[in-house]
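Can you make up a polypeptide sequence alongside its tokenized fold?
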Amino acid sequence: MTNNHELYKVFYWAAKTGSLTKAANALYLTQPSVSHAIKQLEDRFGIALFYRNSKGVILTQEGSILYSYIEQSQILISLAEEKMAALKNLDSGELRIGGSDSLFKHYLLPFLEDFHHRHPGVKLHLNHGTTPEIITFLKEGRIDLGVVRMPIGDSQLEVRESIKLQDCFVAGARYAELKDEVLSLEQLLRHPVILFSRNSRARMAITELFQHYGYTIKPEIEVGSVDLLIEFARKGLGISYVTKEFIAKELEEGSLFEIQLDVQLPPTHVGLMTMRNMPLSRAANQFIELVR
């Protein structure tokens, strides 16, 4: 037994129990192996570490000094082993996720609730932002994974496709005369349009779609949250561009209705984004499996 750590472990248990036999039992070794390990340490230092008597062993003054250091290291090693076991079993640790307010509220919330119920010891940290901001968070190591709209064209990132969403234009009772109409993009633009103000993937996608057909979409109102897009449309301030799955309740109760267009708005896909070739924490892996 020449490994330093193993020698110190034997020394620690012999000093702690005051018995070579008890140390051997604790470490699943033979007593001669324990005696030999103690002798190796004593030979290495050139000093006696124990006094032997009929009841067992007692630390010498020099042995007591060594023990004061070794005890601290053994406590730290035990804590480290406990921490690793806790992380493995997801009894502790943290999960850092980036995404938009709307994706957290309307899509991720049930999964977050489920994950927290299964692993209450894991702390959840949610970082809100647009897709470009979430990409920055991920590359800076501030989050473990991001929930974003696709496509993401970045070779440093890996995106696992999750669900499909459909964006649409909606209006409230003030625009009831449009309920049974099929509008062209030109006709739509005759009405005030409300868009998300920030550089989100949805905002970029609708801007590109209108440009494809030769139009420029200029919002009458820009707001900073999906909740305001919904509320402003309900109040009759204009026609909002929102994700259909996020307004199922309003569509069902009739406080909002979908504007029918003569062109098809393409669906968007939500993906779980991570850094390519970077190991994920156990918590992040578990969450991805839960969502998928």
Observations:
- Residues 134 and 253 are 34 Å apart (CA to CA).
